[in-house]
Please model this.
Amino acid sequence: KDSVDCSMQHQQITHSGDSDSIKVFVRVRPLTQGTGLTTDGDQGLCLSVTSPNTIRLHSKPEPRTFTYDHVADMDITQDSVFSSVAKNIVESCINGYNGTIFAYGQTGSGKTFTMLGPSDFDNFTDDQRGVIPRSFEYLFFLINREVERSENAKSFLCKCSFIEIYNEQIYDLLDSASASLFLRENIKKGVFVEGAVEKFVTSAAEAYQVLSMGWHNRRVASTSMNRESSRSHAVFTMTLESKETAKEVVNIRTSQLNLVDLAGSERQRDTHTEGSRLKEASSINRSLMCLGQVIMALVDVSNGKSRHICYRDSKLTFLLRDSLGGNAKTYIIANVHPGSKCFGETLSTLQFAQRAKLIKNKAMINEDTQGNVR
Amino acid sequence: TEITNMASTYSHEWRAVCDKFNNAQDLSEVESRKDPENDPFRSKYKARELLREIYCSLKNFDVGENESVNDEADQRPTEQPVDGGMEDGFGRGHCGDSPAGSRAAKLGAVEYYLGVNHVETEELSAGEEHLMNCMTLLEKCSISPENVSLFIQVRNQLGILWAGRDEIEKAQGFLETAEAMYIRYMKEDGQPPMDLTEFFVAEEEALPQQERTKRFEMAYTHTLYYLAQVYKNLEQYEKAGGYCHSTLQRQLKFNQFIPLEWAINAATLSQYYITKTLYMEGRHCLSAASVIADLAGEVPSEAAAQESEAEAEKRDQLRQKRAEIARCWIKYCLNLLQDAKKLLEDNIGELDMDRQAELRATRLQEEEEKERGRKSAVLFGSSDTFDSICGLEEKVSCVFPVDFEEARAIFLVGQTYVNQAKEYFEMDGHVTDHIEILQDHSALFKALAFFEEDLERRCKMHKRRVDMMEPICKDLNAQYYLLVCRQLQFELAETYYEMMDLKLAVANKQDDLDAHTVKKFNHLCSSSTKFYQMFLDSVRSPEGKWPDKLEDEVLRPALVAKFRVARLHSRLISSSKTVQLENLNRALECYNFVVQYCKDNPEAKSAIETELELSEEMVSLLPLKINRLQANLASSN
Model:
């Protein structure tokens, strides 16, 4: 009798293949005036790009070097950002994989420029257009090519949704009148936002229109409802369904491309671990809010035993569970500002990006060491 | 006359001070919440000005009366008092309730409020200075009911301040001193002390005793709450756990909690105890969590939820949190069974009778010690809830079960909670959670099966596991739930394997194998193979290619699966020699795979030592058997 017991245990973060693990692209924006992030006359830089995948931060007393999949200096073109980050992901989407691109960084570090382009939405043909318009173009280029090649045996259906997560509430950016929405899970569909509007699109221009409409709604909402867009995450999802008819057998594949604009990293500090700072008792006094987090940390360090954690994932990590070490290809673009005034934010962005590299499947083997093979 | 004169000016000026103080409190606590975003500290700055004025008035009051105090208070201390050392603030200088002591406390209180004000407006150094001034003033006083709150609260604030600067040890010093002061005060004096706000109210407005107690105890609860965080940050987890427990306990005792929040925290703490094999404490936390969660009220009906959004939210919250607590209970039962199994099993995973007798004997001894241990354990419960908590505790044991009957009792409790948890975490809407609960249910069966001596019945228990997992494994979309799919496939393969083993053991007791048994046995073999194969296929790329190098996470499971598939093939029973030959060849192929993989990737060896050794043996033995069979087959043709 074999009593070697191999079971895999589900940890907080789900599976990722090594080849599919999260990749990190760091982009340094140029130092320009008028961003509010450089002081007049202070042209000091807090970092330098030392190779295509290393960046050195001029910290005291010792400079620190960080390594990523790719580090782009100030002079990189929009086109080569797209080629390194998105091209491969878009290609895999056509082949039925899920893909996600996150943009992360301090407000003013060039997130919008990287993702969209210089001035929003009149830039569809602009040389400076960002990752998102280029992805749309490439996606539909590939779709058309596939359809042609298959001589119409293959067809594609493409729909978009656009939601915003603010304060753990989900809003539909394509239907600004809707109340907040819920996340649900389905055995066939995985995690989805229940009741989110989905718009069918047939070209890059249409997709871009949907995006710009949602982007506009996000702004309106942020002013009218006291929602701050730098504090919210926006998730644009394209669901691609391909149908191939061969010898009367219909083969359907679906995949998702998620484009995520994360809240400004300077705002993340409120919610993330703040080092050693103590949480104070809230003024209501009955609520000692962080006690649960303390206990959770205690439970987390004792590995190996089966335990239940009562605190739920944040909405964002739940929605993008597959992308965060899941069954998907994922790239994080970390945008940093090189100005010495931004040192603190840049350091924390670089650290976040480094932690992101570590997000991997933690499927564990639980073994009965008593066991003996007979 | 001189005295009355003084009293009247005093009382006149005193009233002004009290008014100012009230005003400052109001600005700081209430008004400040309405401050505009571009001027966030407006009210706090106003409050600060008032506090400064109060400070000046106080200094003028007693001039002449207590010159010595005045002088001392004016001097900047050459050496700042630092906590964490031996000094504990008892029995130094003048009496806490002497006029000089009272004056020092009042000035100290203003310094305290100024300190907090500066900290809140992000001027940490200035805040620290004020708080340290408060410490200096108190330095000269012995602890009394008048100033003990101030002694403790100023240290709470300094603890928070220093932790924010990453100087945890410094924070720890202040907070531990505060803790020691509370304990000693309660031992030596214990009457409800004055609150900080009472320094600045007219005598007739003094707080009732009950309110004084409440506020004082609350400040100390905060000390413990901060210490829990400090110890966590210092990675002293055991201590941190203890302080979390005490914090929860005090919240309950002084009725200062929000039921659902408290219940979830207690349930989480139970999981900490479980991972430390402290089942008595774990059970206590869970019982308290269940009882307190019930205080949060009735679950609104579905109809009510459809009527109003507030009711809908309340319904969801209550149902969810109670389901979460049920899931913590499941883990309690599961771990208790699994740990007992570990203690009781022999080297081939069967129940060891000697150990069983041993465990029975030690348990008797423990029963006696339990009485003592119980008293020293920290218990939850106010007078209202204590009985309900104990009542719930009695429904499930906290000692390791030694036989089937005892194991079954724990299993049944676990199963009840499985059903409770599933009511909220339905498959439609909560796929991952629902499956996790099913996996626990299956694990409960597995652990229980260990205690079952009748092999047929044991087999039936495993069949139950198959029945709950197999349909889901088929339906689940692997694109979104790859890891869960793999877990289910692997577990199903193992379960069938286990059943095959049991069938074989039963059959071996009989003399001859009838056709029906053989058929059944072969069916179990191929079912097991099928799921191992599904798991192995999930490791391939979408183009169907086997990876050159297995990822760490699947390395061992994948090689074990290959190994098991090999054994399953060699075990299939067939009367046809051709089929036998086919099966043996397949088995050899799989053994070869394991051996070859470890040759190509030597780092994998350590992960599957035993299986590798056996595979190597089989790779050298099987060809002989195959050759013999081949020869046999050729000659019979």
Notes: Chain A is about 25% helix and 25% strand. Residues 1-19, 270-274, 361-374 of chain A have pLDDT under 50 and may be disordered. Residues 204-224 of chain A form the longest helix (21 residues).
